[in-house]
Amino acid sequence: MTRVTSYCRTVLDRAGVGYAVTDSRGNLLWCNRALGAVLGVPVEQAYGRSLPALLPGVPEVPAPVREVLVPGPKWLEVRCSRLGDDLMYEVVDVSAWRDRELTVTQEADALRRAQALGRMGTWEWSIREDRVIWSDTLLEMFGFSAGTAFDFELYSQLVHPDDLPMIEETLDAALKTGSVFTYTHRMLRPDGKERVFECFGEVVVGDDGTPLRALGTAHDVTQSSRVHDELVRMAEQDPLTGLPNRRALTRALEQELANNGSGALLVLDLDNFKDVNDLRGHAVGDRVMRMLASALQSRLGDRLIARLGGDEFAVVLPGASPKDASEVADGLRDAVAGFPLAGIGTPARITVSTGLAEFGPGDSWELVLANADLALYASKAAGRDRVTVYEPNHYADTVKRVSVLDRLRAALAGNGLALYGMPMVELTTGQVLGHELLLRLEDQQEPYLGPADFLPVAERSNLILEVDRWVLTTAIDALVAQPDPRLRFNVNVSGRTLEDPDFGNFVLDKLGSAGVAPGRLGLEITETAAVTNLDAAVTLATQLRSFGCRITLDDFGSGFGSFVHLKHLPITGIKIDGEFVKGIETNDADAVLVSGIVQIANGLGLSAVAEWVERPSQVDALKRLGVRVGQGFHLGKPIPLRDVVSAERMPPNGALSSQVVGAEDGARS
């Protein structure tokens, strides 16, 4: 038995498939070398580390095969099953298969286009004579006039140098086996433009197996390649600043810890940056954010800085002592304080508060980030514009400061919550088609807490379950008070509520007892919450949609994998993330992505609503791209629910006039 056990361990260790065993919290208990290679961490140092942090996207509970994209990029198929009280993972690298699948799909598309448009380029290589004949169409695609003398040597000079070895290896292998072949490569045309070509070919052999000639086609796939690259980039890059995002930061920090690294983490928060957005609008705010991000990155060199979201950044400093890290933080603080803003029309000076936390072997990335956050809160409480090093007493101080949950509980019990309706408007006619209901805390206490202040706190506790049920109950009561079937509401559902197994029945019971048609109520689930709780989101959406409720995927496109999850979620509509809409008139990449989203939505029979519509020019651009419905301050500001219910049902109300309105879109609140 001992010998058999030894053989089993050897086989698993030599297997090309990755295997791992974790405890119920996702911490690695064992993995083989194949999985260690995928994680980029030596096997011995991976034990005790968080597998979901090292491999974002893996299921954290038993689940059938799930596809996960990791940097490289690589596509993995991950299966999670229960092993006693622990979890067993099987990880298979299917990148090559996906590449072949993508290539075959592109080839089929290329052939159809060639038949329809005659724009397929062809070539033929006479192997014995070593002579290549190029079609006139292909020469024009390469940037040359028809009939130009063009040999393989000149072709090789134009191919991207990183792609040429791959082409030569592919052709050599095809000549030896006589098989079909395919490859995709970049080419720099004589006019200086880089294009991407997908090529497909086959080798013709004689009776004795000697290769006689090779035939091939080439298709310009530059546009689809750019869209694909953009989606890959979105996986770990902040779309506004171009910096790495939270996902990239946690992966880098966990890898550093898995390799027994030590150092420091900085979390920076721009003080009162909301004032810039409120006073000058989000366009100016975004411009300032990009400039500050660039200045911080320049100051740090090749050290990792990520944007965590909003006005918050984080910096990983491997090997740095607290003193060294404090000096770096002071330098960043000085860089922000000294940044010239007078010419932009913003407040004369922006400051930054910083929390600093040490890390070392045995720490987890969650603990390090939490400690840095607590130190950051201490910096803000002490007056902002300073650097604070984490100390254990910061936790106790934070507990004393946090009264948000108490206020929220009191508001639930004492009518301190209110709903506001933001209209969703048909862009051609101006007709209001429904309202998204937004939550406000109106408890008459100071300081004022906006949704961004109290909702994240509530979502970290079970109180959000009560809040979501209050919102839903209030919405249904309003639909009862105004039976007009044209009055329709969308309510937002938190990620925590998705995991509540009783919520679906609660919704249906409320609708049934109130006598409200299910189609008048829609639930909005953010893409991030849906992806994080995919199984729960599918279960809830399936249950409610089967009874006629509308299910909308909110902030669509904000995270990578959006299109993949459309296959699994039984939704009725999507809301296009405002990041793609705010610059739709001038940003070609945004226009391409929005156009693609609309085409996919139409093909799947889904409605599509554009968020953050703040200017008349956005309306014109969205209509050209096929977007039918939008919401934002240009189309209508949020108004109290009681006013929505009591208002007469009116025809188009001038929402599409050129009236200048505030920049902040209530749908973001």
Automatic annotation (TrEMBL):
The domain of life for this entry's organism is Bacteria
Q: What's a BP term from Gene Ontology annotated to this protein?
A: regulation of DNA-templated transcription
Where's the GGDEF domain?
261-392
Which Pfam families does the UniProt entry name for this protein? EAL, GGDEF, PAS, PAS_3
Q: What region holds the PAC domain? A: 181-233
SUPFAM superfamilies in the record: EAL domain-like, Nucleotide cyclase, PYP-like sensor domain (PAS domain)
Family matches, as InterPro entries = Biofilm_reg_signaling, EAL_dom, EAL_sf, GGDEF_dom, Nucleotide_cyclase, PAS, PAS-assoc_C, PAS-like_dom_sf
Record-annotated PAS domain positions: 134-178
EAL domain span: 401-652
Designated name of the protein:
PAS domain S-box-containing protein/diguanylate cyclase (GGDEF) domain-containing protein
